[in-house]
């Protein structure tokens, strides 16, 4: 039986992005060896959206996206997309230290992670 999910973020600077998850977000982690950190994530859910081609997106969920943006900005994070309202909630996108991006959103729909 499937008992979890493992998310991989590919990065041009994995050390910096690992430091972000460890130091800025404060996520608990294990060291799989040689500084290869694997982080415990908050509860999760998966949605399947229509698309013209295969793609994946990682969004971290929060209760108040604007307050979270303000807090992360105060910790030096850069947002490349401001908070915008979308049909299913409010969303912003931050720039990871390694150059990638990460979505942050406040759902305005029933959430599955509480099931």
Brief characterization of the structure:
The protein contains 2 helices and 6 strands, in the order H-E-E-E-H-E-E-E. With 115 residues, it is an alpha+beta fold. It has one domain: 2,3-Dihydroxybiphenyl 1,2-Dioxygenase, domain 1 (Roll).
Can you count the beta strands? 6
Percent helix among the residues? 10-25%
Query: What is the distance, rounded to the nearest whole angstrom, between the alpha carbons of the first and last residues?
Result: 18 Å
Shape: globular
* Count of discrete alpha- or pi-helical segments spanning 4 or more residues: 2
What is the radius of gyration computed over CA atoms, rounded to a whole number of angstroms?
A: 15 Å
Specify the CATH architecture: Roll
| Sheet having the most strands | 4 strands, mixed
CATH class: Alpha Beta
What is the fold named in CATH at topology level?
2,3-Dihydroxybiphenyl 1,2-Dioxygenase, domain 1
Domain VOC: 3-107
Pfam families: Glyoxalase
GO molecular function, one term: dioxygenase activity
Keywords: Dioxygenase, Oxidoreductase
């Amino acid at each position: 039986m499937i008992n979890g999910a493992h998310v991989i973020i590919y990065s041009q600077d994995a050390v910096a992005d690992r430091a972000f998850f460890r130091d800025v977000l404060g996520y608990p982690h294990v060291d799989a060896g040689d500084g290869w950190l694997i982080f415990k994530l908050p509860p999760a859910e998966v949605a399947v959206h229509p698309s013209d081609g295969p793609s994946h997106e990682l969004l971290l969920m929060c209760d108040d996206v604007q307050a979270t943006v303000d807090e992360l900005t105060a910790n030096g994070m850069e947002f490349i997309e401001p908070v915008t309202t979308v049909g299913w909630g409010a969303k912003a996108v931050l720039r990871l230290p390694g150059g990638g991006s990460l979505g942050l959103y406040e759902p305005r729909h029933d959430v599955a992670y509480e099931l």
